[in-house]
Amino acid sequence: MSEFQKKAAYNVAIAGATGAVGETFLNILEERNFPIAELKLLASKRSAGKELTFKGKTYKVEELTHDCFEGVDIALFSAGGGRSLEFAPSAVKAGAVVIDNSSAFRMDPKVPLVVPEVNPEDAFKHNGIIANPNCTTIVMLVALKPLYDYSKIKNVIVSSYQSTSGAGAQAMEELENQARQWVNGEDIVVDKFAHQILFNVIPHVDSFTENGYTKEEMKMFNETQKMLHDKDIKVSATCVRVPTLSAHSEAVTVETVEPISVEKARELFAAAPGLEVIDDPANAKYPMPLFVAGGDTCYVGRIRKDIARENTLTFWVVGDQLRKGAATNAVQIAELFVQ
Amino acid sequence: MSEFQKKAAYNVAIAGATGAVGETFLNILEERNFPIAELKLLASKRSAGKELTFKGKTYKVEELTHDCFEGVDIALFSAGGGRSLEFAPSAVKAGAVVIDNSSAFRMDPKVPLVVPEVNPEDAFKHNGIIANPNCTTIVMLVALKPLYDYSKIKNVIVSSYQSTSGAGAQAMEELENQARQWVNGEDIVVDKFAHQILFNVIPHVDSFTENGYTKEEMKMFNETQKMLHDKDIKVSATCVRVPTLSAHSEAVTVETVEPISVEKARELFAAAPGLEVIDDPANAKYPMPLFVAGGDTCYVGRIRKDIARENTLTFWVVGDQLRKGAATNAVQIAELFVQ
């Protein structure tokens, strides 16, 4: 695709079209008026036959198979890591460029990992597959990048407040159902999370690794290093699921090599692409997931000089993890090529 | 009271008896079988006349006045900082020792600030008033103390996940009401918090100060220094309200002077009073507010060596802020004298 001939419109396939991110892909492609010639919606056999609407036209979901990618220019994958590993190579073989939202290829040295606001140049070094980073990492990186360009970053301590829809559409429905069950005095049904999420917080996102961090937390460490091409930046994350529907929030503490004043940080944030400052605490204005959900911008606030350590800034960043944290970022990667 | 004659039982007054902490005072005094001769329940004029039950006996709430403390040995205050400033001196003048749950006297150098697991000896240096620390600080300090005794602590980065009941009984009801309103398709009513708390998180607890931190966040900085008698320990907090009912959770990162291994930390935590380790992530076992609420113990889990910095540990601590974070801690302070 780096040598792609520019076309008026492209044949686009979405693998995992019926999932939370898949449906968001459709919204984003429509909103951004992505130049689509033919659209192919793909999902597992179970979901094949379902109908989805795009720009007022109804599309029947087809089964994701090895042979379904003929003629496809761009394949957006969000069908889980297993399906990406199995089917992405077939898409590449058929001539498509895959933009994969799973974690399957992210740390593969042959696969670029890209946030267009952070490292767009990496996208052009692909070998057929470009990986979309972890959602929590994307939201943080959009805010870290302008600071990093001003001064290298030594380390980041981050605590997340992650929405239920980060675990899929059904996980979000589980929170809504638990609210109904609680109000109606029924038993609370727990299925998608390890524990009840209504009126609770769960310090457990993705599975645990040997060092006591979860895979989600290690993604923030590893993917940040890969995208910034800097093995010296160290990220320690505590990822926590909270009972919100959409948008992830993060309390971020950043130690920089050079000092950055609050005023300078605000200036850097304000000038950064994809980022907006909401930081007027006297009027109770700061980013919150309830009000940020549905947008493509990440919002930063509570910007302050850290009172515990030198050369350290503390702030709060919120972004819609289904959109900028997943679908929007993937479509923005595709746009790097087609614009 | 430091020179108090030991008695078989004490006359106890509760100022603010009808609030969230006030009612918890009654539960704790009953559960712990505190030696009470006479019990006096006090509240504002508005709440006077209400009836509350203690050990099966009904008590009528009296109005909190300057003259109501005659004969009282111990006055437990949780009626807001303004009422503490106004009425605590009257209680002291009448011969009572005040244990005050508000922030009014906490940083007064003549007033000891005490967590019995942390600095019980300070309680005996009182001049009539002993201050109960901020709830979020208490929960954190119970976990920090055993580490601090092993190695001095340089700094702490903490992000909180604070329950609605930390803002009072009505604030907790607001979350419950918002759940009902949402399920019934009604307008969501916002009153006690600056924004809707259902399906949201709000990075704003208490009012903001000039350095961009909230008063709540600065309490964690100042009160920690005061209780550990150490001006070198620096705490940077981000305090966030989350849609839970009871118990505060905190993601804590601690840089120590001497290294502490995870094994040693676990051993220190396990041996510490008032603290229990729940740290079996492979079996999805870690502390969570939904399951910890209602107890007096603080629970620590997710203990790991920080991957971003040297000599740093990261963990997760949860405690019921109405009980250990307020009422239980105050009653434990009283018990230091009567036992």
TrEMBL record, chains A, B:
CDD domains: ASADH_C_bac_euk_like, VcASADH2_like_N
Pfam family, one: Semialdhyde_dhC
Transmembrane segments: none
Binding residues annotated for phosphate, in chain numbering: 106
Domain Semialdehyde dehydrogenase NAD-binding: residue ranges: 11-126
E.C. numbers: 1.2.1.11
Residues annotated to bind NADP(+): 18-21, 46-47, 165-166, 321
Keywords, comma-separated and alphabetical: Amino-acid biosynthesis, Diaminopimelate biosynthesis, Lysine biosynthesis, Methionine biosynthesis, NADP, Oxidoreductase, Threonine biosynthesis
GO molecular function annotation: aspartate-semialdehyde dehydrogenase activity; NAD binding; NADP binding; protein dimerization activity
Top-level taxon in the UniProt lineage: Bacteria
Annotated substrate binding sites: 162, 241
GO biological process terms on file: 'de novo' L-methionine biosynthetic process; diaminopimelate biosynthetic process; isoleucine biosynthetic process; lysine biosynthetic process via diaminopimelate; threonine biosynthetic process
Pathway(s) of this molecule: Amino-acid biosynthesis; L-lysine biosynthesis via DAP pathway; (S)-tetrahydrodipicolinate from L-aspartate: step 2/4; Amino-acid biosynthesis; L-methionine biosynthesis via de novo pathway; L-homoserine from L-aspartate: step 2/3; Amino-acid biosynthesis; L-threonine biosynthesis; L-threonine from L-aspartate: step 2/5
Catalysed reaction, written as an equation: L-aspartate 4-semialdehyde + phosphate + NADP(+) = 4-phospho-L-aspartate + NADPH + H(+)
Active-site residues, Swiss-Prot/TrEMBL: 135, 248
HAMAP family, per the entry: ASADH (MF_02121)
Self-association state and partner proteins as the record states: Homodimer.
Family, per entry: Belongs to the aspartate-semialdehyde dehydrogenase family.
Role noted for this protein: Catalyzes the NADPH-dependent formation of L-aspartate-semialdehyde (L-ASA) by the reductive dephosphorylation of L-aspartyl-4-phosphate.
Protein name: Aspartate-semialdehyde dehydrogenase
Encoding gene, per UniProt annotation: asd
